[in-house]
Amino acid sequence: MDLSGLGEFGLIELIRERFASIPSHGCEGIGDDCAVLPLNTTESMVVTTDLLVEDIHFLRDRITPEELGRKSLAVNLSDVAAMGAAPVASFLSLSLPPGVTGVWIDAFLAGYHALSTQFGVPLLGGDTTSARDRLTVSVTAIGRAENTHLKRRGDAKPGDRIFVTGYLGDSAQGLQDMLSGRDTPFIALHNKPEPFVNEGIWLGGRNEVHAMMDISDGIASDLLHILQMSGVGAEVSLDMIPTNTPIELAVAGGEDYKLLLTADVGAAARLAEDYKAKFGEPLYEIGRIVAGEEIRWLDCGNPVLLECEGFAHF
Ligand code: ADP
Ligand code: MG
User: Which of 97, 145, 260, 262 could serve as a FRET partner for 63 with CA atoms 20 to 30 Å apart?
Assistant: First the structure.
């Protein structure tokens, strides 16, 4: 079978279909930020795994080992937060090419350890192997939530307001600056994403939050996942998107790791007020869910065409 033209999401769909006939015993997999495994009648565990491959996800000479260690865990904690869950543990697998020194590994672990300490997440296992050339880091994170707190991509409803938890595009700007040899503050934002762990847990406890995910590929791609899984469309106001970068990077740049959520229209203003009071930062409203199946981009109320896709590592 020729799998070459499938693209990342086509391949994931093919894998999902191939395994769909095996009973899942109440577990939910493939398609959301984490898989959901019921623990008992009221709580579930969530599980996510992410791979960081040298020269695809990072350039070893443009990110410090501390930053890489921290980021490897951060992107996984972000997926746990996106479910409204609290992180419980992580697993770390490393494949190390020749030339990776003890000093490098020590610094990598220092970064991973610092974020683990910040959120009280123990490291419970992993795997270690040598590699021919490129370094690969694979992290699995596990979280826990009451079933009524779990937030999925498929629960957006027409009328919902759409929010993001922070500025978009900084990371993509940092990547561009890094690749073009410019030294700017955006590079640190690219290398050191802050997962919205406490925010995700708090938002999980709010019934008016319907759908949630984290933004790893840009909202032009990530919001589409919410739309497809919820069977709805969206209107997004470009002029309301919080950003310090060109709008293309804000909507289609990768690795922002902010949360994207939809909330019931009747309770959205109160939610934003309470969030601001709790975290000292705004929830940024960027649009609303409507009937339909695609994103309508608006600029100061006027429809605009935006020809861009999300960021892809694949
Ligand atoms: P995220 O950006 O939130 O980490 P991805 O876009 O990487 O999510 O993955 C989307 C969904 O597809 C997730 O539920 C993930 O577990 C699943 N997935 C990705 N790759 C594979 C794979 N090789 N086999 C099975 N499931 C996969
Ligand atoms: Mg995600």
Answer: 260
Separation of 86 CA from ligand 2 center, angstroms?
A: 15
Distance CA 219, CA 215 (A): 6
Pairing of strands 233-237, 295-299: parallel
Instruction: Give the closest residue to 235 by CA, choosing from 149, 294, 182.
Output: 294
Tokens of 67: 């930053």
Please give the number of the atom of ligand 1 that sits closest to the Cα of 82.
3
* Percentage of the chain exceeding pLDDT 90: 94
Q: How far is the CA of 119 from the centre of ligand 2 (A)?
A: 19
102-118 and 65-82 helices, crossing angle to 10° = 30
In which order are the strands placed within the sheet that holds 86-96?
A: 35-38, 43-53, 136-146, 86-96, 123-130
pLDDT by residue (tens digit) across 15-64? 999 999 999 999 999 999 999 999 999 999 999 999 999 999 999 999 99
Which residues are CB-contacts of 32 (< 8 A; sequence separation ≥ 6)? Answer: 83, 152, 153, 154, 213, 229
The per-residue pLDDT for 238 is 97
State the Cα–Cα distance between residues 116 and 308, nearest whole angstrom: 36
Name the token pair of 24: 């899942």
